[in-house]
Amino acid sequence: MNTQNSNFQALELYEESFRNSVGTMDETGRRKWVYPRKPKGKFTNYRDYVTYLLLAVFFTLPFVKINHNPFLLFNVIDRKFFIFGQPFYLQDFFILALGAVTSVIFVMLFTVVFGRIFCGWLCPQTIFMEGVFRKIEYWIEGDRNKQMKLDRQEWNSEKIRKRLTKWSVYAVLSVVITNFMFMYIVGYEEVFRIITEGPAENPLKFLAMICFTAVFYFVFSWLREQVCTLVCPYGRLQGVLIDKQTINVYYDFKRGENRSKWKKDEDRKAFGKGDCIDCNQCVVVCPTGIDIRNGQQLECVNCTACIDVCDEIMVKVGLPKGLIRYATEAEIENQEKFKFTGRMKATTVILGLLIGFLGFLMYDRGSMEAKFIKPAGSTFFIKNGKITNTFIYTLLNKSNEKKTLTIKVLNPKNAEINFFGNEKIILKGDQILKGNINISFPEKEIRFSKQNMTIGVFDEKGNLVDSFDTVFEGPFQLVL
Ligand code: SF4
Ligand code: SF4
Q1: Per-residue pLDDT band at 10 (split at 50, 70, 90)
Q2: Is residue 201, in this structure, part of any structural domain at all?
Q3: Any idea what the CATH number is for the domain that residue 454 is in?
Q4: Residue 49 C-beta-side C-alpha neighbours within 13 Å
Q5: pLDDT in tens, 279-315
Q6: Is 324 in the same domain as 374?
Q7: Which atom of ligand 1 is nearest to the CA of 275?
Q8: Looking at the CA of 295, which ligand is closest?
Q9: Co-location of 175 and 44 in the same domain
Q10: Domain containing 387: what range?
Q11: What residue owns the CA closest to ligand 2's atom 3?
């Protein structure tokens, strides 16, 4: 009995031993270079379509404008932000903050139910690595075995030619992609201007571009899967976010074990053998160098390459597909078919509501924003039976159109405004304007030392475009 127990413990320790090491490092801690086999199959095709679509969007969006505004721009240098063509100002910070909080909740809920689908299908790292740079590598150096052979061989003419070609294409691509990324920060016009004027006119900007290009090149030519396995914080979050009900790429261990090599015409069931023929193809195809048969691991980016390769093997040996598939751990344990559970439906509805809420916030900002603030240390003054307060106004035109505005006090009644000039205020599109006004009331109108007051801003058609609540100060009066 004791021997049986210790054997069982030893087996458990052996099965968990893969957790003591990283798939891309050897025992001495040195990097093990991953040469994934070129994937092919249904999921690879779908992922290719998604990749082409996302790349087309990435290379097109910087040139798309809505109402003469860039579709997306995050100009942190000049603090100019455009999302879906809508300008965002520091005054809209709460929307961006709320948007950031909503996005975090979105990502967490999404991950709880749908696992790392984002990593495999949408993450820019995977899109560029597997969809662009890896494809170029296959094209120049060939598939896994040829790459391994090339790595081992001397620096002969073939190796020099292939490596130089690959590195040159990588470098050109890094320059192009980095320039497009810059377009999302400063706009395409600015990037074209910098390129046309040359480094002598814009030394710092050129230096920034060279640095970013070098980082980009380094990430995709050398760092590669280490970004997902060691650097990315989202990957680290998986451990706490996923559970047995989360959809992920799983190996069906109930069906696959007891794994054993394939023998033609053998009745595997009769010998108690599982469907896994231990061909190791799911390991050699994995871009993060892991063995999915060890269970869910943080290194798995849900790229689906192992699903495709295992399906291919299953078809070849005449066994049902889906030994590795999208599933939940609970489904695998209970040998159930995939179900879109109530929890998934509820989470999907909540995710939809969150997106709707964000959309509502973005479109409900109005095209004008007005603020009326008292100058620091100012107070009221009384002249000719009138009490007067001074205000500094800040008017922000969030649209592209010129606006002619007037200011009126909506409450209390009988206010007089001294504009110190023209009472029509002209504001160009996307302009912030500051100025002073004096607001006066007959003494009898002001019954409190601090009287609530609402100031309205009207456009040329007389429509109220924004209002601001503030207080009007007067002398202390005893109200009976
Ligand atoms: S590809 Fe499929 S059959 Fe081959 S080792 Fe992996 S799980 Fe087993
Ligand atoms: S285990 Fe499969 S899905 Fe996960 S990264 Fe490796 S090949 Fe991709």
Answers
A1: very low
A2: yes
A3: 2.60.40.10
A4: 5
A5: 999 999 999 999 999 988 888 999 999 999 999 999 9
A6: no
A7: 3
A8: 2
A9: yes
A10: 368-473
A11: 302
